[in-house]
Amino acid sequence: MRVLMFTWEFPPLISGGLGTACYGIVKGLLKKGVEVDLVLPTKEEVYFPMRKVSDVDDLPVKFLSPAKEIEYSHTVFKNNSERFSFIGISSTPESYISVSEVKTFYEYFKNYTEKIEFRTRVPFHEILNNISGTEDIFEKVKEFTLRAERYARALNFDVIHAHDWLTYTAGIIAKSVSGKKLVCHMHATEFDRAGGSGDPRIHNIEYSGMTEADSVIAVSKYTSTMVVSRYMIDTAKVNVVHNAHNIDLKDFEERKRIFKDPVILFLGRITLQKGPDYFLEAAKIILKKYPKTRFVMAGAGDMEKKIVHKSAKYRLGNKFLFTGFLKGSHVDEMFAASDVYVMSSVSEPFGIAPLEAMSYGLATIISKQSGVAEVIQNAVKVDFWDVELLADEIIKLIENPDIRTELGEKGRQEVELIKWDRACEEIIQVYEKTTGRTL
Amino acid sequence: MIDLIFYFQVHQPYRIRNFSVLDIGKGKDCFDDDLNREIMLKVAQKCYLPTNKLMLELIDRYEGKFKIAYSITGTAIEQFKKYCPEVLYSFRDLAKTNCVEFIGETYYHSLSFLYDREEFLDQVRMHREAVKNEFGFSPVTFRNTELIYQNFLSDLIWEEEGYKVILTEGVDRILDWRSPLYAYKDFSRNLFLLLKFYSLSDDIAFRFSNKGWVEYPLTVDKFVKWINDLHLIEKGGKNLFLNLFMDYETFGEHQWEETGIFEFMHQLPGKALKSKQIEFSWPSDVIQKANYQPESISFPEPVSWADMERDLSAWRENDMQYNALETFYEILKKVKSAGDPGLIETARKLSTSDHFYYMSTKYFQDGDVHKYFSPYGSPEQGYRNFMNAVTDLEERI
Q1: Is residue A289 part of a domain?
Q2: Is the minimum CB–CB distance between A316 and chain B shorter than 8 Å?
Q3: Predicted complex ipTM
């Protein structure tokens, strides 16, 4: 069986949350013998023919245009990043920031690059070109959609799989051109991203994508409920496949403390959706009782300024710190330096970060308003709005290092059981059910 | 007679690098050596070296009639030595002319007098030592960071060796009907106060190249005429002190060479000295030249030369600034009582007022001077780096 898969991210090209999930899915599918032709928002019209498991890391490329394909095959690249710049793709996770944030990010980076231009040490220009204003993402989606027809005509496949609204329109076009069945995968709805009503244009795309789809995959029951109740999608075609992770378990030996006292970590985008303000309120309560505790808010986002100002207003001294945007290896370092991880999301379709935290043996507290709460037992679960309870739970973990260690260790073992192989079996079942064909 | 008193502020802070929580406790230097070098070299080329050369020429040409004053911070002197010693040599050459007065201040250009008087006095003494060692001059005149002044500053300075004159801003709300052209005395300690004449100072420092300004372009003739006109306010023969205080970086850095700022300065002494009623003086000359008993003047609230408000709000207005200042001075106490000289030095470099200035959100959206001077993308980024650097310091105790 071969899948034509549209997605907006794939590591290392673009590695946001969606990219991480797609990597796990494609790898899992390849293990089970399912082939994938992967289409990404590249400048050149190329696709990635995934045939064997190692391809998820090697990322072989094929051009749709034969002339270009010849040019490409005659070009020698020193390394992968040179190869990727030839096909024109950058590495900013734009799909996992909401449209309202794009502008903030753009201004943030623009401002930043203006200041440091003379230093030349930070190659921010590439990022700037990628995030260039509110409308740009719709332009890119339009361009991506227009190309879908050519992909659908040129390639041979059995089923179409589209990830999130950015690729739904491409999926619809490919379906109508090829007559093949369409599976729409819902990683995050606009309701989740916006933390409110969101952009109506995106809702429309989400609605038409899932309506046109022959099957819908939701990453949690939490999300499937939203798909059914808010988008009025036929329950019969909605399937829940919980996300998994590609995280390697870390040794406790790798723990590298920064502070002597307990470190409570928030790691994620600092946006309404992630509930950073609830984390701050809890910190305020806890610091009254345990003034030596360190709270770290890691990440960037459109609410960052607000939280910075508010934490200063509460005069939390240097007990509530910010890291700014963290890159991959720094994320690892940050986890390794923390004791308790808190995900205070207001609405989280799945939520991979707590799994990552648990893989480090961190005691983890997650909001009940998340998909991950459905699959994890060894984490403390609280309603995001219940700041008092959140504070109490954190205090319990501060006061009882033994409980903290035990919860961390159990969570670590539990995480190991959540595998993409299991999720991919379920995805293949969806393919089979949808196409009426067996693998 | 009008005494034209030019005092130039020379200062460079140790800018903090992008400092993440993850850099804490790794023994990393929190200051951005590359950036500090780059800025020092740039400002040396554009301002310090050419302006010092010009000042030296003018002093030579007018044989003692052209006099100026500098306040050079300890952090600037250190960075001259480290990145561009020629600048220090050229200031020493100026010192040798005996036409230059050196002014005392806090070594680290800090706000310590607001939070930690002991630390403030330590820094004042350090600066006096540095000025003595580098330029062979014992300061008689004091200026607090950014001309910040308030009555109790006199009490502190009065107890210090040698000081007789303090410089501050001629703030309207304090002066009311009075003119900044007269010499004043402080409220309680009989120290002279000289007040910056901000309109003419800022004509040079800020408006010189502003094409939207009605007086643009500012010619030397026009400027000298304005100075002569000031004399009309005094009928009784009292000496007036026109205090033109500004950042030295005005020359070539804030006002680029192309604006004609060097040419302006080049011509000014000659044309001013043609007028029989204008002389160039040092701030400390006020002690002899005030031919009347100066009125005493009270500054119950702090003033400064920064922003439109001319108060402390450039460094202490929003929550980030308050939290950063309070946290810093608490940690400074801990560092000092622990006694490690290396850590104390780092802490003091962090006391420089610029770090708090970068956190100002007052005009950030409009792209004001705060933004011009800030090495960071946003006040929040400045805050983040500072707080992480301070935390690193605390963890190293």
Answers
A1: yes
A2: yes
A3: 0.88
